[in-house]
Specification:
101 residues; mainly alpha; 4 helices; 81% helix
Length: 101
């Protein structure tokens, strides 16, 4: 209590004024911490949202590549591979039959 009174005398304030200033500063500290916490939460939400968008874009690119492969159709090196494909083997099975990766 004596230190507070001494500080109050130096600052030309009363003891209650000195305590009130400290309470006000504490309030500002808590408000600042709350704002920082909200900012960190927003950064985390933004990161998660961007990551989800990246995953969606990768999936879309994969789907577009599959569609492109389907539109262009399978390619074969010779007539025998085409004959096997016509008999009902899919493109990958024909390629594996002939040792093509």
């Amino acid at each position: 209590m004596t230190i507070t009174k001494a500080i109050a005398v130096v600052n030309n304030t009363t003891t209650s004024d000195s305590i009130q200033i400290t309470a006000q500063q504490t309030t500002y500290i808590f408000i600042t911490l709350a704002i920082i916490t909200v900012e960190i939460a927003l950064l985390i939400v933004t990161y998660i949202t961007c990551y989800k968008q990246i995953l969606k874009r990768k999936k879309l690119n994969n789907n577009l590549q599959q569609l492109n492969d389907y539109i262009n159709g399978p390619t074969f090196e010779n007539q025998e591979q085409l004959d096997y494909y016509i008999l009902g083997l899919n493109h990958k099975e024909v390629n594996s039959l002939f040792g093509i990766k």
